[in-house]
Amino acid sequence: MIISRPSFLRPLVLSVLAVSVLFSKGLHLFQHAISIPPTSFVAYFPTFFLQEALLIVGAWALLHKTTGVPSVLGTAVTVLITYLTFVLSASQTAFYLIAGSEVRWDAAASVGNDREGRKLIFSGLGSFLGAAVVLAIISWLVTPGLSVWINNWISALFSLAATNNSDEELPITTVEQPPRKRGLIRFWTVCAMLGTLGLYLLRPQVPYTHMSGSLPFTFFQALRPKPAITHQPGDHVFPLQDGLGEENWEGSNGHFKGWAPGMGLVYADKTTRPSWAFGNLPPGFHRWTDPSPNSGGDAQPGEHEDPKNGTSKHFYNPVDDPLRITNLDHKVLEPLTRALKDHPVPINHVVLVMMESARKEIFPFKYGSHLHRDILSSYRNQEIKALQEVNDRLSRLTPIAEKLTGESGGFSQSENPSTNKTWQDTAEPGMGGINVNGVLTGSSLSFKSVVMNHCGVGPLPVNFLKEVETEIYQPCFMQILDLLNRLKENSTDAGASGSGKDNEPIHNRKWNSVFLQTATGMYDHQNILNEMMGFKKAIYREDIGQNEAKYHHDDMKEINYFGYAEREVYPYLRDVVNNTVRDNERLFLSHFTSTTHHPWKTPSDFPDEQYFADDGVRTKHEDMNRYLNTVRYVDSWLGDMLGVLDEVGIANETLVVFVGDHGQAFHEDAPVSGTYENGHISNFRVPLVFRHPLLPRIQVNANATSMSVLPTILDLLATTQSLNQADTDVVIDLLNEYEGQSLIRPYQATHQGRQAWNFGVINAGGTMLSVGSAAVPYRLILPLKSDFEFVFSNLDMDPHEVSPLRGWSVVEVIHRVRREHGDKAADWVADAEKVGRWWVEERKRLWNYQ
C-alpha cells in the first residue's frame, strides 16, 4: 500500500517527537545507570518515562481529527514542539559524543548569546548533523508501526472508533478491537498507571527527579528566570568552630592585622586608614575609601555603606576570616635567603604567562608518567625500534618546560639531543627560579582562573563570568601598581617624581600594565574583565587581525574559532618590551596562550607528530594526539618569548611567572572529557613556575591553589628589595590582606588545629565545587545542585582518580569512605561538605552578588 504524503505527514511528526524524547531519555539514563543500585534502577524504571508518556499522548490529541481553527493550532503547536525537541535531542547526543557528558541548557543558552561563544557551539556542527540524520532515519522507519500501536492503544482506552479514512489527521489504518481486548487494555493501563504513580511517590527525590527529566521540559525549566538572592551578615555561620575560640585569637603585629573571627572587631582593629590610603585611590581600593567602615553603627565587620545607594557592601576582612592561615611570619626559604646574601636579585619587570589547558603532567612531559604509559600501551605487539622512535619524539615534546622547571623528562640523551633551534637558558647551574609542585587551579573556567591569578581572590561560584557585574573584592596586581604610580605623583621627593628620565632610579619609575593574546577578547566579557582589573592596554585578535594593524600580513590564518597562533603576536611583544626600555618604565605584561584550547590545531607550517599508535583511521586517541602537538608548539613559543627578554637585555631583571589556567581531561583520563562539569583531577593539576635567572633553583611541594600567585609575586618584590622603601611598606601592608599564602615561605598546611582548605570552581561555575586540603590527600567533588553526584578520592592511593567513590548523598559517600578508607577520611568528608557549602555562600557575600 502506498501512503500518500498528506496522510503520512502527521504520523511522521508524532514519530519524530516520540523517537526524539525516548532517544534523549535513553541516553540520559545510560549516563546515570551505574550511579544507582541495579535493583533500584529496575524498580523505578517505569517512573522515568511519565513525562514522555504524557507528552506523546498530548501530541496525539492535538494531531487527532478536529475541525477549523483548533485543528490548525493543534497541528502548529505540535510541529513546533516536535522541531524543538528534535533539535535539542540531536544537540544532546552530539555533546555526549564530543564530551561524554550532558549538556546544560542554561549554560548553552549563555554561550549561544555570546557572539564568540557561538563559534564554540558551531564547532560541534558535524556531530549534531550526524545525530540529526540518525534520529530522522529512525523516525521515518518506525512511523507506520508506532502510529498503528498508539492509535490502537488510545482507541481501545477511550472507546474511539477506528478508521481508515484518508481525510483523518492520523489516517494510518487501525483494527477494531473486540470489547474484551479493549477491557484488558484499559485494565492493564490503569494498573500500570497506578503502580507507576505509587513508585513515583515512594522513590527518593535525589537522584530520581533529575533522572526523570524529559525534553523539552528540562529546556524550558533551565530558561526560567532565577529569583535574586541577597546575602546579609549572619545568613551563614562557619560550620567548624573548633580552633576559632578566643584562646586561638592572634593580636595585630606590625603589618599583620590580627586574627579573631567572629569577635566583632572593626576592620583591622583600627578606625583609621592605612598611611598610604589617601588622595584619589585607584579602582579596587573601594574598601579603603571610608576611614571608618563601621561608623554607621549598624555595620558589621567586613562591610561598609555604599555612598551611591546607602546599602551595605561587603568586603574581605582578614581578621574575620575563619579559613585564613598566613605564613608571612615565617622566614623565606633558606636557598633564597642564601642567594640574596650573595647577590641582588632585581625584579624590575614582571611577566605573567597563563597557559591554556596546561596539565602539570606534561610540563614537562616525563618518562614513566601515567600518560607516557598510556602512549606506549597503544603500541601493542610493536617492535622495540618502534617504541624507541616514539620515545624519541616524546623527548622533544617539552624541552623548554624542562629548562624552566628544572625537572628532567627522564629520557636518555640519545633520545633528547640538544639543538640550537630551542631557547638556551643562560642561568648558571643551580639557578633559574622556583618550581612549585602540587598546585591546583582555583577554577577550571579560564577567566575565573584569570581573576584568581591576577587578583588573589576566590572566584564567584556561579555560571560564567558574572564577576564583571560586580566589584572584585581585592585589589588586582595592576591596580596595586597603579596605586604605587599615584603615590609617586603625590610624593614630595623630587627623586621619586616618576618622570621617566634616564638617570632616574629604576625603583622610582612608573609601572605600565599590558595584556597580550592572539585569541579574541570578546568571549564571555574578557575585555570588560581586563579593564576592571586595571590593564592600561590590551591587544587581542581583534587588534592584530585588522588589515590596518601594524604587523598584519595577507597570509594570517586563524587556527581555531578563538584566534591566531601565538607567533602572530611576536612583533607586538617585542614592541611592548622595547618601548618599556625606551620609555624608562617598569613593565607588567600578562600573556594568555590559546593554541592548546579545543580543537587543538597548529599552524599549517608546523609539522605534527604522531605520538599514539596510528591505525590508519580515526582513533580514540586523536584528540589527545592533537593536544600534544599543540603542547609542543606552545612549549617552543615560550622559548621565543624568553628570547625577546634576552635580546632586549632585561632577562636578568624580569620575573616570569608561568601558570596553567586549568588542566584538560581526555577520554584517556576519565569517561568524561573536557572541563565542563567535570571535576576530574586532570582538569585541576597545573604547573606553576617563578622564573628568574638569578633566583636559586628551588623545588617546592605545596598543596596550594593559584590563589597564591599574587601574594608570592608581592612577597618576591618586597623580599628582593625591588621596590623603594615607600612602595615596599605599601606592598607588605597589602600582602597581609590576601587569603593565599606566599610560596617563597614554608607552606602551612595546618595551624592551631585548623587546616588549609583548597577550593576549585568547576566549569561553568555554579554546579560543582572541588574541595581539598593541604593537610590530607583527600578530595571531594561537592555538587551544588541535585543533578550531580558526590565524588571522593584519596590521591595518595589513586593519584589519577581511576576509581573514585561516588554517591548521591553525603551520607552515602561518608558510609562508603568509612568502610574503605577509615574514620579519619569519613570525618573529613563530613567537614568538607559543610565547609564547601559555607565557602560558596561566603564568596557570593564577598562579591556582593545578587
Alpha plus pi helix count: 24
Oligomer: single chain
Helix content: 25-40%
Profile the largest sheet: 8 strands, mixed
Cα separation of the termini: 63 Å
Low-confidence stretches: 1-6, 162-173, 264-271, 291-301, 493-499
How many domains in all?
A: 3
What is the CATH topology of the largest domain? Alkaline Phosphatase, subunit A
Radius of gyration: 31 Å
User: How would you classify the helix and strand content by structural class?
Assistant: alpha/beta
Name of the CATH first level of the largest domain: Alpha Beta
Calculate the mean pLDDT score and round it. 86
Biggest sheet: strands side by side, in what order? Answer: 6-5-7-3-8-9-4-10
InterPro entries: Alkaline_phosphatase_core_sf, GAG_Ulvan_Degrading_Sulfatases, Sulfatase_N
Protein name: Sulfatase N-terminal domain-containing protein
Keywords: Membrane, Transmembrane, Transmembrane helix
Pfam family, one: Sulfatase
State the gist of this model:
By secondary structure, the protein is α/β, with parallel strands linked by helices.
Describe this structure in words.
By secondary structure, the chain is an alpha/beta fold. It folds into three domains: 5-222, no CATH class; 245-321, no CATH class; 334-413 and 433-750, Alkaline Phosphatase, subunit A, CATH 3.40.720.10. 39% of the residues lie in helices and 10% in strands. The protein contains 24 helices and 17 strands. Strand 1 and strand 2 (312-314) form a beta hairpin. Helix 4 packs across helix 7 (125-158) and helix 5 packs across helix 6. 45% of the residues are buried.
